[in-house]
Amino acid sequence: MIQNTPRPPGRPRSFDEREALEKATRVFRSKGYDGVTIDDLVAGMGVGRPSLYSVFGDKRTIFLRVLKAYAEAKGALAAKALLAPRAVRDSIASFMKFAVESATEEGCAPGCLIVCVAPLVDDAEVRQFLQNIADRVVALVERRFEDGISAGEIPSDFPVAARARQVVDLCRGLTMRAQIGTPRMTLLRDVEEAADLVLLPRLKTSSKRRA
Predict the structure, then answer these.
(1) Is 93 exposed, middle or buried (0-12, 13-18, 19+ CB in 10 A)?
(2) Are 92 and 71 in contact (CB under 8 A)?
C-alpha cells in the first residue's frame, strides 16, 4: 500500500513583492520602457530570473502592474492635495505642487511614469489606461471648481471643464520640465503664478464684429 505523504513546503520568497515592484518603478522611470531589459529588472528588483517570471511575468506584465500600482498610489495623494479643505486657489496650487514634488522625488529619475514614460509605450492597453486616468483627473479638478462655485469663491459662469483641462495640462508641463532638469524650487515658484492664471475671470467677448 502506497501512503500519500505531504509535499515539503516550497522555499519561502527571499523578497517582498510590493518592494520589488517599487524597485521596478524606479527602473522604468530611469530607463523608459523600451530601454529596460529583463536583466535590468532582475538586477533592479533584486529577484532571480526564474522568480521574476513565475511571480511577476514578462516585461510587459510587470510594467502594467507597476503602472497601475503607481497610478493608484499617486492618484490618492493627488486627490488629497486637491480636495483637502482650503480656498480653491490654494487647492489648485497644492495639486500642482504635488505634481512637481512627485516629478522631483529624491532617489528616482526626474519625471513621472504616467506622463513621461507610459505615453511612449506602443500598447493599446496602456493607451486606454492612460486615457482613463486623464478623464478621472480632469473630472476630479472639475469637482473642485464646482465646489468653489457652490461656495461663492468663483463665479457661476466659470469655464469649469476648460480650466480643469488646463490645470492637468499645466501639471504635465511642469512634470516634463522636471524631467529635463528644471530645479524643483523654480517649478514650485512657477506653480504660484500658474494657479493665479487658471483662476482669471472669463473674458467677455463682444457679439459685434469690429468694423
Answers:
(1) buried
(2) no
Identity (one letter) of the amino acid at 153? E
pTM of the model: 0.87
Round to whole Å and give the CA distance between 175 and 67: 17
CA angle 138, 142, 146 (to 5 degrees): 175
- Residue written as cell 520589488? 20
DSSP code for 155: -
DSSP state of 110: S
* Phi and psi, residue 104, nearest 5°: -120, 30
Identify the pLDDT of residue 177.
98
- What would the DSSP string read from start to end of 149-190? HHTTSS-TT--HHHHHHHHHHHHHHHHHHHHTT--HHHHHHH
Report the percentage of the chain scoring pLDDT > 90.
85
Centre a 10 Å sphere on the Cβ of residue 125 and count the other Cβ atoms it contains: 11
